[in-house]
Amino acid sequence: PREPLRGHRSRAPEFYGFVAWTSTSFLFVVYVLWALLPDEYIRRLGITWYPNREWAVLLPAYSIVIVLLTYFTYFSLALANTPAFSDSMAFIDGKAHFPALDGPNPYLRYKDPNVAPETYEIPIGVVNRVLYSQWKHRE
Fold this sequence. Notes:
Elements: H1 12-36, H2 39-44, H3 55-80, H4 124-132
């Protein structure tokens, strides 16, 4: 088991969480009472002005529309920033590790059983040649 952390730890997040939970619960109860109670009960409580009841339906509807538009916007931005399939950035990034062109071919080092070759990115041309070539394997 892990040792407990030593030193003073602030309990402020616990209090902030409790205040957020209680205030959200209180506001939800007030919202439901405002939406469902008849006008005479609300006036008996001493409240003389309150928003029109149509907002009890409009606020959740607008909230749902805003959430859906947010999802749609992020999805659209992701599609707009995705490179085309014909662009090499679709399958190669800036962190790709290719072997030196003037050195020996590292892809043929697997033939020696005592050598573990370095890891390199396989160029897309080699992948296409292996996957989609027309020559047949001997069976």
